[in-house]
Design brief:
single chain; about 130 residues; mainly beta; four-stranded antiparallel β-sheet; three-stranded antiparallel β-sheet; 9 strands; about 0% helix
Length: about 130
Amino acid sequence: FWAEQITANRGAEWKTHTIDDSWSQAHAVTLVDLDKDGRLDIVTGKRYLAHDIDPGAYEPLGLYWYRLGEDGRYTKHVIDYNGKAGGGMQLPVTDIDGDGDLDIIAPGKSGLFLFEQVDFVRQKAR
């Protein structure tokens, strides 16, 4: 979730907005304008057994991009699911191959993975 400050005075009020409550064990979170639309998106993922027996500990790994829309809501895009890549401890995002778009590096317990953007195509949200 993200929190929106409703009032700015003493004893400020906050309103929470759910981004996605369909999975747990989110770990690294990277704020980045992945699609270069001028809005910061979220890249994150699930880490296997991140906190031992927490809910979702044994569910498959996943790597996700949450695109921030003009309406202020996030749309989930699955980058990888039920493979070996997940959230790990950090998710660097950079133009690793110098082609002008941003790529995702996903280090984790099962290896080091590169997700290279070869041509930005708007994916159908899952």
